[in-house]
Amino acid sequence: MEIALDEARLAVGRGEVPVGAVIVDGSGAVVARAGNETRLRNDPTAHAEVLAIRQAAAALGAERLSGCDLYVTLEPCAMCAGAISFARLRRLYYGADDPKGGGVAHGGRFFAQPTCHHRPDVYAGIGEAAAAELLRGFFAAKR
After folding, report:
1. Which residue segments constitute the domains of the chain, with CATH numbers given?
2. Where are the alpha helices (DSSP H) in 42-95?
3. Does 118 belong to an annotated binding site?
4. Pairing relationship of beta strands 91-96 and 121-124 according to DSSP bridges
5. Using CB atoms within 10 A of its CB, is residue 127 exposed (0-12), middle (13-18) or buried (19+)?
6. Of 24, 7, 4, which Cα lies nearest the Cα of 94?
7. What gap in Å lies between CA 120 and CA 110, rounded to an integer?
8. Residue 80, annotated ligand binder?
9. Where along the chain is the active site annotated (predicted)?
10. Do the beta carbons of residue 31 and residue 45 sit within 8 Å?
11. Are 53 and 23 in contact (CB under 8 A)?
12. pLDDT at 143
């Protein structure tokens, strides 16, 4: 999670919402890392999770990442939860809850829907304090 937090800090430097993501393979090797780049790319889908999934798929030469785990600093939104499911990621570890925009433990609870074809094991609250502090600081500076 520390690498994901580093990616979130880098996102702040780009003026992005501080969310970072890392994908590791079954051996624990990092295969992808990313931070939000929605403003940089002018792309509303350039969330850290989606960018990391794209990198991992390219690095591994596979559309399914079934032996991989995703670490992300904020509860994924519904779009990212869908991408996680389609990528067949094995486990999802996330830091801070997102009561407004989250799609895992909040909102539509994507993985709980009967139409969800793949549900990763989900572990919440990993590095939560550090992730939440980054977000609070970022939005406080914007106000």
Report:
1. 1-124 (3.40.140.10)
2. 48-60, 78-87
3. no
4. parallel
5. buried
6. 4
7. 11
8. yes
9. 49
10. no
11. yes
12. 79
Answer yes or no: is pLDDT of 104 > 90.
yes
For 56-116, where are the E strands, in sequence order?
69-74, 91-96
Cα separation of 9 and 35, whole Å? 8
Structure tokens at 97: 């809850």
Helix (H/G/I), strand (E/B), else coil: 108:
coil
Reported as a single tens digit per residue, the pLDDT across 110-127 is: 999 999 999 999 999 999
Report CA 20 to chain centroid distance, whole Å.
6
CA distance 36 to 52: 10
Catalytic annotation, residues: 49
How confident is the prediction for the chain on average, in pLDDT?
97
* Residue 142 predicted with pLDDT over 90: no
Burial class (CB in 10 A: 0-12, 13-18, 19+), 19: buried
